Amino acid sequence: xxKIALRMGVGLLLTVASLAxxxxxxxxxxxxxxxxxxxxxxxxxxDAEPLSPAAPVRANRARHPGTPTPASFPRVDAGxxxxxxxxxxxxxxxxxxxxxxxxxxxxxxxxxxxxxxHRRNVEALEKELTFLRR
Length: 134
Fold this sequence. Notes:
Order of helices and strands: HEEEHH
Mean pLDDT: 77
């Protein structure tokens, strides 16, 4: 295959990918009360809302409350959930400690890109830890 044909193929692929990324997305509530996002416009649903590709996807909980959990949905008892939360906190704290150590090493060695990445990781882990229940 020649270089020109290869470049044309890559160009065609990129063009198709960019067109797909710009497709219109529709948001609507189906007959079961589920919030649906689709690239195909729904038929028979007058309040389908077209969204621009760059628009953030936000569920309007006030207008579209979630459906209740079915009675057959598996449940976890409080003790098991508490154990899972404790384990999750321990894992996140270990990851945070490791990231802080890597941040110190990257800062000391003068690698700003690595230090920035570790700094972002530390911030994300700290944020995640604030969301955990005690």
